[in-house]
Amino acid sequence: MIETGSKIDTDFTLDVVENGEEKSVIFKELLDRPTIVSVYMRNNTSGCDKQNKSLAEHSDWFDEQGYNLVAISKDTCGSHKNYAEKFDINYLLASDPDYKFAKATDSIVEKQMFGNKYEAPSRSAYVIDTDGTVEAIIEKVNTKDHASELKEVIQNL
């Protein structure tokens, strides 16, 4: 996993849903102010739902502190649109089926489900400055209280 203080490659394209609209963006375009990127596995799964509900409940606080909020998974933008409506998500949801962000942060890990091993992004969160410098990392997200742990990280920067 990338270390705090390192710069990530920001020249990759993601499809995103923002305010119900789909568009393709180069990741560095999302860094118009410090940005929190929260990685989760999949829409409509218990832990991921808790993680995003926590963020949705506190998204205004992050905005008031001057941070963009992005949640990223391998789900399609169509799935993200429905998910955003279901949970009243007003921050950006990014679709990354090719794990471009995880590759940029060197955060692809081996996982196991039902005895099968596979590689996927770690459930983690990053605070990234406008120039792509990683200012903070939460290596293992607390799905139930994700917003509180991010608030504490931001307040200690």
Account of the 3D structure:
With 157 residues, this protein is α+β, with helices and mostly antiparallel strands. It contains four helices and nine strands, in the order E-E-E-H-E-H-E-H-E-E-E-E-H. It has helices spanning 46-64, 77-87, 100-104, 146-155; strands at residues 13-18, 21-26, 35-39, 68-73, 92-95, 108-113, 116-121, 125-128, 134-138. The strands form two sheets. The protein has a seven-stranded mixed β-sheet. Strands 6-7 form a two-stranded antiparallel ribbon. Helix 1 runs parallel beside helix 4 (146-155). It is globular and about 40 Å long. The two termini are 20 Å apart. The relative contact order is 0.24.
Layout of helices and strands:
Elements: E1 13-18, E2 21-26, E3 35-39, H1 46-64, E4 68-73, H2 77-87, E5 92-95, H3 100-104, E6 108-113, E7 116-121, E8 125-128, E9 134-138, H4 146-155
Parallel strand pairs: 3-4, 4-5
Antiparallel strand pairs: 1-2, 1-5, 3-8, 6-7, 8-9
Helix pairs in contact: 1-4
Strand numbers in spatial order across the main sheet: 2-1-5-4-3-8-9
Query: What is the N-to-C succession of helices and strands?
Result: EEEHEHEHEEEEH
Q: What gap, in angstroms, lies between the N and C termini?
A: 20 Å
Q: What fraction, in percent, of the residue positions are helical?
A: 25-40%
- Quick one: how many beta strands? 9
Mean pLDDT: 95
Main beta sheet strand tally, sense and closure? 7 strands, mixed
Approximate shape: globular
What is the count of helical runs? 4
Q: Which radius of gyration do the C-alpha atoms yield?
A: 14 Å
Classify the secondary structure makeup into a structural class.
alpha+beta
Tell me the β content: 25-35%
As residue ranges, the low-confidence spans are: none
